[in-house]
TrEMBL record:
Keywords on record: Membrane, Transmembrane, Transmembrane helix
Highest taxon above the source species: Bacteria
Enzyme class, UniProt record, top EC level: transferase
Domain GGDEF: 228-357
EC number: 2.7.7.65
Protein's recorded name: diguanylate cyclase
Membrane-crossing segments per the record: 12-32, 44-62, 74-93, 105-123, 130-150, 162-180
InterPro entries: Diguanylate_Cyclase (IPR050469), GGDEF_dom (IPR000160), Nucleotide_cyclase (IPR029787), Rev_trsase/Diguanyl_cyclase (IPR043128)
Claim: Transmembrane helix is one of the keywords in the record: yes
Catalytic activity: 2 GTP = 3',3'-c-di-GMP + 2 diphosphate
Plastid as UniProt keyword: no
Length: 367
């Protein structure tokens, strides 16, 4: 199935999108700080450095898409440093410098911190995400919250209240919701796995491993809808009931498995075999004419006759073939193949009988 590849592609797209947004935000922050009337050293260093770093990560992701998780974690580590550095520097500066307020110094990055925590939850596995979130909260949010609690005038200002909510209840709520997010992700994975298992059950015969009748019918309908020539082979094991009666059903199951495996190995990738029911199988051969279809059936008949399935002395099968005609339906094709198979049975089995070509009689080959 293609689910894993599809999931990886979505992850790469998401990481590329986030990196691109970060580069854009860093470039905008760089321009704003350079154009501002007051230049602060930290504001002039971090945004351009982050822009260059995340731009390099985009290039790395394009050239090495398999590194997507590692690139995402490097981006998270860089983001944590970029958020923690101004939080500590400006908090210390506001604490040690009379007349300087943190609400005037700290860049507007509180909303980015909440987004950062969400990304942390996505890309850090299991319980490690708790420790990573707690560490980042202590590095980024805790010094700001401690400062605001010690400076009530700044705390009750509009900017102070916004910082308190973003770094306090909102951040904690994001971390608390981590188990819910993990549970939902696990539930989605289980549902996807169950759906995949059900699809396999619907499309594969559980005993022989070849396609199920349901998928065989669908493939035959698709062949009927196409204009390209195609043929159908119906095969039925000879005297299979006596094999079950003589040697038991476990031996009969091994015979079915050996026949299905032997036929599947001889068929090309675009030729499909499905278990039609009991000891009967249906083969669809695209892009074939009457002689080619006859050769495919004869090759399968000969291979089955040589199969060693102990303790059965020999396994043989009878074959009926027919080409798909313009205007055919599922019933008409199967009816002709079944009639040809019936003739092969009447003639002693272990042989191939062809259904009538339009305007001609039947042909056959003996085993």
């Amino acid at each position: 199935m293609q689910a894993p590849d599809t999931d990886n592609r979505y992850v790469r797209i998401a990481v590329m999108f986030l990196l691109s947004l970060t580069v854009f935000a860093g470039a905008c922050a760089t321009a704003i700080h350079w154009l501002a009337p007051v230049h602060r050293t930290m504001d002039l260093i971090i945004p351009p450095a982050a822009t260059v770093l995340f731009g390099g990560l985009i290039v790395a992701l394009i050239r090495r898409p398999r590194w997507v998780i590692g690139i995402a974690r490097i981006a998270l580590a860089a983001g944590a440093l970029a958020l923690a550095a101004p939080a500590w520097l400006y908090t210390l500066q506001a604490t040690l410098t009379p007349g300087v307020q943190l609400i005037d110094l700290l860049p507007p990055v509180s909303s980015l911190f909440v987004v950062f925590l969400v990304m942390l939850m996505i890309f850090i596995p299991g319980r490690l995400a708790f420790f990573a979130a707690a560490l980042c909260w202590a590095l980024v949010a805790l010094p700001v919250l401690a400062y605001l609690l010690l400076h009530p005038l700044e705390l009750w200002s509009p900017r102070g209240s916004d910082l308190m909510m973003a770094y306090g209840p909102v951040s904690i709520l994001v971390v608390v919701l981590l188990p819910v997010q993990r549970g939902l992700a696990s539930k989605i994975r289980r549902l996807a796995s169950e759906r995949q298992r059900m699809e396999v059950m619907l499309h594969r015969d559980p005993l022989t491993g070849v396609q199920s009748r349901l998928l065989g019918e669908r493939m035959l309908r698709e062949a009927l809808a196409e204009a390209a020539p195609a043929g159908v082979i119906m095969l039925d094991l000879d005297r299979f009931k006596s094999i079950n009666d003589t040697y038991g059903h476990p031996v009969g199951d091994r015979v079915l498995q050996a026949v299905a495996s032997g036929c599947k190995e001889l068929l090309r990738e675009n030729e499909c075999i499905s278990r039609w029911g009991g000891e009967e199988f249906l083969v669809i051969v695209p892009n074939v004419d009457a002689p080619g279809l006859q050769q495919v059936a004869e090759r399968l008949r000969s291979a089955i006759a040589r199969l060693p399935v102990a303790p059965v002395r020999q396994v043989t099968a009878s074959f009926g073939t027919t080409l798909i005609r313009p205007g055919d339906t599922l019933d008409t094709v199967l009816q002709r193949a079944d009639q040809a198979l019936y003739r092969a049975k009447e003639l002693g089995g272990n042989r191939v009988e062809a259904g009538p070509v339009a305007g001609a009689g039947s042909t056959h080959s003996s085993g």
